[in-house]
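REQUEST
  id: r-88c1
  op: predict_structure
  target: Nuclear nucleic acid-binding protein C1D
  payload:
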Amino acid sequence: MERGESSNFVPESVMESVKRTLVNLERVETQLLELLSIADNPDDAFAEIPPLERAQTLFLLAKATCTLFSLRLRASGIHPDEHPIKSELERLSLYQDKLDRFVDLSKAPLRPSTTLNYQAATRFIEHSLPDLTPGK
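RESPONSE
  id: r-88c1
  status: 200
  body:
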């Protein structure tokens, strides 16, 4: 069967979805190649990105790579849970947790706000000054 020829066994909607997926994968490929060329040259704009954003970018690149490889395994009939990619995805999950913690820390105020617990302060003062009367 020719490449452009449609099959009687595959519905037209499925073939259209496959074509759209191929176009999207080609777009992803060009974007990844551009990102990798920037990341390989430390003197360029990638070095100017703040460290947290750089870590997020590299994490997303690793996650996308693993996800695409996992999809390729599935398309080949190999279950990703039976492949070493599973351990890589678990490792990325740990890094995602760490990265999320750092993002949360970066959004937190530099100095935590304090609130006064009036009841605790009153107890503290009462116990530290035993001869204190209500009138004083």
